[in-house]
């Protein structure tokens, strides 16, 4: 697992061996969620502004108690960090600036499996000097996954994740694995999707899945993409397709978010079965 973690975190400017991290900045919401669980509060110089978005973040209340940045090199420099956590989604210009300024930076890939996600937890915990906190978080995640597993010999429930704009995910992703672990069969492949992408509404209407995990329509932030989720043709399929709202906050991150994702998927499975949520 230590080797896997090393492959997932690529140093732009390496943190000196045995260096004590006193001020760390995170520029990614998924890394934010891990960091607040494995670092001491006084070590966290700032989180990303995404962590405060109530529609996408699972740590809004905690994030409001920390400083934040909008991912600019100037903001981060002013905080004098001795470590910055970034991802492939972080601004390339900002990452290049850190390299020029020789600010120790760890670049993380997006985990595609539970194993890779747990490796990231270990890596970040090691970086901030609290490997024991990483192991505690991993134990909690594994316990949540075990609790959300379906009863033995239960037949997987065919399901399609269908978010705003028809965005979905096929095989080979973390979300796909989470579906399988919680008793679902991801049917995105039936519509020709591998990995992340969009599925045309027409294909879903022509061949509706038994269960649709539909993204939530945001009343305070309506978008053109939400029209697909509100489309009358989709509503008309209620007789052939059970629709369950599934928050996008539980989809895009691993780490501690997996506990919320597992619980939400378990609840969805119970709703399909007609039992208690």
Description of the molecule:
The protein contains twelve helices and twelve strands. It is α/β, with parallel strands linked by helices. It has two domains: 2-145, Nitrogenase molybdenum iron protein domain (Rossmann fold), CATH 3.40.50; 151-273, Rossmann fold (3-Layer(aba) Sandwich), CATH 3.40.50. A six-stranded mixed sheet has the order 1-6-5-2-3-4. The chain has a four-stranded parallel sheet with strand order 9-7-11-12. It has a two-stranded antiparallel sheet with strand order 8-10.
CATH architecture of the largest domain: 3-Layer(aba) Sandwich
The number of helical elements comes to: 12
CATH topology heading of the largest domain: Rossmann fold
Fourth-tier CATH superfamily name of the largest domain: Nitrogenase molybdenum iron protein domain
Would you tell me the overall average pLDDT? 90
What summary fits the major beta sheet? 6 strands, mixed
Order of helices and strands: HEEHEHEHEHEHHEEHEEHEHHEH
Terminus-to-terminus distance: 35 Å
Neighbour order of strands in the largest sheet: 1-6-5-2-3-4
Strand percentage: 15-25%
Give the uncertain stretches in residue-range form: 1-11
Helix content: 25-40%
- The domain tally reads 2
Shape annotation? globular
Rg, Å, rounded: 20 Å
Tally the beta strands: 12
CATH class of the largest domain: Alpha Beta
